[in-house]
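Hi Y.,

Following your request, here is the sequence exactly as I used it, all 134 residues.
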Amino acid sequence: MEPAQLPNEAALRAALTAVRTWKPYDGDALLDDAGDVLDTVAPSEERVEELGQRLRGDLMQLVGIATTFEAEKQDPRAVQRIGSARRSIQAEMPGDYGRAVSHLRRMGWAVQELLELLVEIGCVKAPDSLSEVP
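Below is the corresponding structure, written out as tokens. Let me know if you'd prefer a different format.
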């Protein structure tokens, strides 16, 4: 019998970082982030970078879910929506405020549309705010 080997330190650190940065699915939070940029009143210039980071994280999470559940095999619309989300994730935030707001709004639409599709095909639970009775 071989003696137990110590785990690779780099692999342990990577796993710990992943656990620390993991964000559970929260459909209502995703909709709130999208709503912050899709509102009729544009976000302030001070919030542009923060909102961009949050939306990028939201899109990464949704793309990960879509990929895991092979959404593109379940619905042909997924290919376009995942592609749109990936382009938004990779795009740099424009330095100009007006263009940055436009970029944020595209990201917000990408979150909203991909989330809607994932709910529709059963990959994620519908946000509680959409199922509440007034």
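The mean pLDDT is 90.

Thanks again,
Q.
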